[in-house]
Amino acid sequence: MRYIAIFIDPVKSCNLKCKMCYFSDDKKRPKPTTPIDINNIDKYKTLFKRAAKLQIGCGAEPTIYKHLAELIQKGKEYGIPYIEITTNG
Ligand code: SF4
């Protein structure tokens, strides 16, 4: 059986500017984008239902996303067995 791992940066920003990171570089800093709309998560239920892992935070800071708890709850509702958050906190 194949499994799916979902990697999400719910926001594309960070509260820090570490020297080695693109968030400290004016030329390479990702342009701010609209945060993931928590109300749209169910559009991806086909993926969520089959996922073995939900990784929240890949190249930005997920704890500044105001719907983080709801995103985790969605993962739980879809039965994702492994939910991980990578944070600078
Ligand atoms: S994303 Fe990570 S490395 Fe980059 S500024 Fe934020 S905490 Fe630092």
Automatic annotation (TrEMBL):
The lineage of its organism: Bacteria, Pseudomonadati, Bacteroidota, Bacteroidia, Bacteroidales. This is Radical SAM protein. InterPro entries: Aldolase_TIM, Radical_SAM_PqqE_MftC-like, rSAM, rSAM_sf. It comes from Falsiporphyromonas endometrii. Keywords: Iron, Iron-sulfur, Metal-binding, S-adenosyl-L-methionine. Its cofactor is [4Fe-4S] cluster. PANTHER family: PQQA PEPTIDE CYCLASE (PTHR11228:SF7), RADICAL SAM DOMAIN PROTEIN (PTHR11228). Residues 12-89 form the Radical SAM core domain. Gene3D superfamilies: Aldolase class I.
